[in-house]
């Protein structure tokens, strides 16, 4: 009985629905207020739980990048270029912000979150230019770059005593 119900549910879930689920990071992209910030906030759970497992963390980060490129490319065809609903790029940015950062605690999570949102919103010229890259590559690369800057800034703040 349970197997039949499971099979019926799986049969009704379309690949397009799965892409929307992943591409909007569990529908955070549909938030009426600040979808990128909402997605970034909920993404904090990933570095919190993954930081003790650096190789798994790195594997998931790479996977999110390439999966995000593919999914964002498809979703742009539906919603338009770099649509606000596409928030998988925020997940990547948050993961990169905390990549190989230890320790992870609430202060570091909060600081990294603020740094990532700053660099993602401020869009330094080279980050802004990366958005012109076609398809999902442009969607993902600008947040990758914002995440790298956030990671470097966070490391500097940790050296100064933020922890």
UniProtKB/TrEMBL annotation:
Q: Which GO terms describe its biological process?
A: lipid metabolic process
Question: Which InterPro entries would you find in this protein's record?
Answer: PgpA, PgpA-like_sf, YutG/PgpA
One Pfam family named in its UniProt record: PgpA
Chain ranges of the YutG/PgpA domain: 22-157
CDD domains cross-referenced by the UniProt entry: PgpA
What are the record keywords, sorted? Membrane, Transmembrane, Transmembrane helix
**Organism encoding this protein:** candidate division WOR-3 bacterium
Transmembrane portions of the chain: 21-49, 55-72, 92-116
Xref: PANTHER family = PHOSPHATIDYLGLYCEROPHOSPHATASE A (PTHR36305:SF1)
UniProt-recorded name of the protein: Phosphatidylglycerophosphatase A
